[in-house]
């Protein structure tokens, strides 16, 4: 069964790659410059924050939870980093990075504790903390902006530095995706995420603490959101209460498109990355292919619905196969 | 709460004593949305300037500590008790203040609103910082002034449904024939999100390689577009202009991505509101209504329309020559 499952997922990723390629061909018929290497690099770079958040969200969704607070977490961490930079302009970037990951992790841990120890449904917890984190930004900043001229040059310059043809922002996304592949496929922790989401009762019997695993998933999601927070602020060189407003929905959509089952236990790092890239390509293509802005939202939405339809259909087929093999066994 | 009450009464008492010293001065209260906001502090500066020019005027700069209608009602009641001659208010609520302001007018106090208006019943006149026609003309003028030989410009707006932006763009289109050689090649919508606006601006530069200017009549869009121009290495080729706040745009002016932009000048606004209140209070017997012409000192004169409202002037233009004076104000 596990072999057929992997092949199904493998094929789904292959399909997604094919779909992305097809979309890019379609776009290039209307705007040839889109598939130029330099533009593809900038599309990937633009999608990097989404990839980072989708990686974290994937882990959370695998454990049958959901984290709606990622965008607020990103915004709060970003604001703290920005305000710190204004207060101490000479602070090394390493400090900002470590602080961002730590702060994001703390916010993720807060979500995790509520889910683990108080047993509150994750959607309720993170819906609440989403608002709380946004509120804290307001308290910290008094609603005012941190602007580009107030930030130091090395603070905003770090994600833009180019190494081997790619900006640092892209490299961070690639490295984190690599790390997550290792964690998910080569460590006991990674396997326990799948176990907890796939069958929580069975997971308990194998000695896995379901609540604790979910807690760790939230911490990972929070850390990645925090990291993306600093990068986001530095890239757009502005921090205010509403940054990345509604971005959590893009993140969940990227996961769903990438074939990560909202019911938990199914999904891969590759899927999350491809799902994010799919959305990234669409988002970057819509402004240049001269589609009426009134249609753009509808097109983005249709892509998500199609992906979900495809997912539920795939899940249903899987169910039938199991029943049939059970009948045959009798 | 009690403490703040006490403080208010102390303030009132001090005001009374100060008044006794100069009994014949006209006392004009400048009531703002909340104390401690840079924009209103600047308006107060303008009011003091007007008072100095008029000679026999004393300005009482006051307002609640947070932006609530309740707070303003309390402040107005204390001003009625002090028997000020005129109240010029930037209201936190269009309707909630009407009964209190009516009471003030019944006691012979001249009431005008400025910046953020009060319903017609609650004031004698209202001073808008500018008008839709003036703003629409200004944003295209800013772009055209940098393009003596004509060129391509594109508009980056907020959302497709933003009333203000849509009206301004409509007004801009009306006056377009006055600027020969200027071609508006497209209008895109950044939804007032930094990342989407950035992407749309990047898309504009890709779709129209000959683009000369991006007009963004929204404060989020103009900042994001300026950043996109810097990142695309098109500083000097593409000029970003429109409506923005000096504090947020200082970086863009410094980098050269934006040569100039506009927004109302709070100093002029405070000055004109004071002039207007002084004129109406000094001519208390005159009938005020449609067509009434009110001189506002160095700003010229304004004419009330059928709703008793008037527009002060063109939006004020900010560029590298004056940005440093304003970036810390608002």
What order do the helices and strands come in, and which of them pair?
The complex is a heterodimer of chains A (330) and B (330).
Chain A: H1 2-30, H2 37-62, H3 70-87, H4 93-117, H5 122-141, H6 153-157, E1 162-163, E2 166-167, H7 168-186, H8 188-198, H9 200-205, H10 210-236, H11 247-257, H12 269-285, H13 293-329
Helix pairs in contact in A: 1-12, 2-7, 2-8, 2-10, 2-11, 2-12, 3-4, 3-5, 3-10, 4-5, 4-10, 7-8, 8-10, 11-12, 11-13
Chain B: H1 2-21, E1 26-31, H2 38-54, E2 57-62, H3 69-81, E3 86-89, H4 98-106, E4 110-114, E5 125-128, H5 132-145, E6 151-157, H6 163-175, E7 182-189, H7 194-207, E8 211-216, H8 219-231, E9 239-242, H9 246-255, E10 260-263, H10 266-282, E11 293-295, E12 301-303, E13 309-311, E14 316-319, H11 323-326
Parallel strand pairs in B: 1-2, 1-3, 3-4, 4-5, 5-13, 6-7, 6-8, 8-9
Antiparallel strand pairs in B: 10-14, 11-12
Helix pairs in contact in B: 2-10, 3-4, 5-6, 7-8, 8-9
Features:
heterodimer; A: 330 residues; mainly alpha; 76% helix; 1% strand; B: 330 residues; Rossmann fold; 2 domains; 6-stranded parallel sheet; 4-stranded parallel sheet; 14 strands
Q: Could you walk me through the main structural features you see in this protein, from its secondary elements to its overall organization?
A:
The complex is a heterodimer of chains A (330) and B (330). Chain A contains 13 helices and two strands; from the N terminus they run ααααααββααααααα. Chain A has 330 residues and is mainly alpha-helical. The longest helix of chain A is centred in the last third of the chain and has 37 residues, at 293-329. Chain B is 44% helix and 20% strand. In chain B, the strands form four sheets. A six-stranded parallel sheet of chain B has the order 2-1-3-4-5-13, sandwiched between helices. In chain B, α7 (194-207) crosses α8 (219-231) and α8 packs parallel to α9 (246-255). Chain B starts with a helix and ends with a helix. The chains are: A mainly alpha (330), B alpha/beta (330). The A-B interface holds A 31, 33-34, 39, 42, 46, 145, 147-150, 160, 232, 236-238, 242-247, 283-284, 286-288, 290, 293-294 and B 160, 188-189, 192-196, 198-200, 202-204, 206-207, 223-224, 227, 231, 247-252, 254-255, 327.
